[in-house]
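Field log, afternoon session.

UNIT: design team B
ACTIVITY: writing a sequence onto a fixed backbone
BACKBONE:
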């Protein structure tokens, strides 16, 4: 095979750049998929090689190409399907369609059994106790690759150790995969064809990361629409008294003050003897209940359509 290194150009380099962008968190910015193998691509290749136990020579040969293959395939599948919607309404319609597909395909139902359908996410559990395959791990990896969220690394999604299963069963915080509720929202927007690049998505954080602001806050309760995203603060921890964590969700229906949502990274406890399932599910909220959060960090937002279409 042809070795790709500094100075190489062409479609093969473009595919490697796209694959690297889909290979999880990086200390470097997302690469431009321009087909030119320069210093930035070299640095990302060396980083990828180090994370995957390969010789860190910055050259894409047979072993590095093999390790990148699934990420390149994800990149190619991604760019084939993503065309920006024609206008805001078309974008909102597509966002709702994608969100519902995600729920139907990957949401957890009360009748589901671990391992029965590996496309359904129950992040805290093994689909197979022998292989240690995580329930829905491949889907979580795709979310990680689509978003570039540094809290979720694709290589950590596919499997879950016995120790981590036990950790989740004891209701201890995750150490293998970070919170992915915001990444779920970001992935739906990206699958809908919005030109939003890679993480972060929060409008106020964008300048800190040297990224253009692509999202804006919805300030009026009457202006919240299906296709917007919301942020709910779960309040203070009853034990530690520390402020709660923000949880992101997608608004899929508005009926007066009531919302129907689809969201990821939701802890759902079947009974007191069953460790929580961390899943994709539907939920309901009050718009005013979200906006009146006393901690002041809940609310709603949406893409700036003129910038993302």
């Amino acid at each position: 095979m042809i070795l790709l290194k500094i100075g190489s150009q062409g479609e093969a380099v473009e595919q490697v750049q796209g694959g690297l962008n889909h290979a999880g968190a990086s200390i470097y910015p997302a690469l431009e998929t321009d087909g030119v193998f320069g210093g930035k691509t070299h640095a990302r290749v060396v980083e990828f090689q180090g994370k995957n136990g390969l010789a860190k020579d910055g050259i894409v040969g047979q072993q590095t190409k093999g390790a990148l293959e699934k990420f390149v395939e994800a990149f190619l599948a991604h760019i084939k399907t993503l065309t920006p919607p024609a206008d805001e309404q078309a974008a909102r319609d597509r966002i709702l369609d994608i969100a519902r597909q995600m729920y139907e395909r990957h949401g957890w139902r009360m009748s589901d059994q671990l391992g029965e359908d590996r496309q359904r996410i129950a992040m805290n559990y093994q689909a197979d106790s022998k292989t240690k395959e995580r329930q829905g791990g491949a889907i979580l990896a795709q979310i990680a690759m689509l978003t570039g969220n540094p809290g979720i690394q694709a290589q950590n999604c596919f499997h879950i150790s016995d120790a981590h299963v036990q950790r989740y069963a004891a209701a201890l915080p995750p150490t293998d995969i970070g919170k992915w509720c915001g990444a779920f929202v970001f992935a739906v927007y990206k699958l809908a064809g919005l030109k939003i690049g890679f993480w972060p998505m929060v409008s106020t954080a964008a300048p800190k990361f040297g990224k253009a602001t692509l999202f804006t806050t919805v300030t009026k309760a009457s202006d919240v629409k299906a296709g917007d995203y919301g942020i709910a603060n779960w309040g203070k921890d009853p034990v530690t008294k520390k402020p709660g964590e923000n949880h992101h969700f997608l608004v899929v229906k508005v009926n007066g003050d009531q919302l129907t949502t689809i969201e990821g990274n939701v802890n759902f406890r079947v009974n007191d003897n069953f460790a929580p399932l961390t899943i994709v599910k539907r939920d309901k909220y009050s718009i005013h209940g979200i906006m009146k959060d006393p901690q002041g960090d809940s609310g709603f937002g949406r893409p700036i359509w003129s910038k993302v279409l």
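LOG NOTE: Strands lie at 126-128, 133-134, 215-218, 229-233, 246-255, 258-268, 277-286, 299-303.
NEXT ACTIVITY: expression trials, pending approval
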